[in-house]
Amino acid sequence: MAGPGEGYRLYRELAGWWPLISPPREYINDAAVIDREFATVTPPARTLLDLGSGGGHVARHLATGRSTTLVDISADMLAVSRQLNPDCAHVLGDMRTIRLGRLFDAVLVHDAVDYVTSQDDLALVIGTAAAHCRPGGIAVFAPDHTAETFRSGTGAGGGHDGTGRQASFTECTTDPDPTDDWILAEYEFTLREADGTARVVSEAHRLGSFSRATWLRLLAAAGFTAESRPLTGHGRSPRVLFIGRAPV
Fold it and tell me: How many other C-beta atoms are found inside a 10 Å radius of the C-beta of residue 172?
C-alpha cells in the first residue's frame, strides 16, 4: 500500500529543491493561525507531533519552545527538514498507520493531508492523530481544498538561495469529476542550477477535496469534539481549518 504522496518525484529526487519551490517564509501566516489554536490548550501545548511534515517548513515556525516530532513517509523530505529543524526528532513513517507509543499535547496535519484521496484513508489519518493526542489535547488539520471552497484555477511561485540556484513552478488545478473526493493539480517546475543550466519537470498530483460534513463526521467518529473555521494565507484561496479536541 503506497503512502500518501509517496510516489511523486517532487518528494523524492526533487526534494532538495523544496526550500526554493515553496520557501519557509510562505508558511508564517499558517503557522501563526495554528499557533493560536495551540494556545487554547490547557495546560499549554509543549509537545507537538507533525504528521506529514514534509520539508519541515511549518514546523520551523512552531517548534520553538516545544518538543517536536516530525513524521513523513519520504526519507528525502525528512533529510531536508533535518537541515532546517536540527533540534526536532524526525521519524520515517506513514501518517495513516504509524504508532509512536506516546501522547502529545498537539497534533498537526498540514497540507500533506491533501494527498489523502479516499474517506477510508482520511479516517485512518484522523485515527492516528487521535491515537497520539493526550486527554484535553488538540489536533489541527489544514487541507488546501474542501469540496465547498474548491475552484479551478492557476498559481505560481518559487524562490532562490545564496548559491545562485533558482526554482519556480506553475500550477493548474481542476476537478475532473465533481462527484468524487479528489481533484487534479498539474505542476511544471523550472529548476535552474547556479551555473545557469536549467531543466523543466512536469508532474500531475491527485489531491483530496472532502466536504466539510465529511471532515466533521470523521473527526467525531474518532472521538474528537470537531470544529472548523476559515484559514487564509500567502495568496492562497480561502481554506478551512479543522480542529479536533480530545476529551479530558
Answer: 14
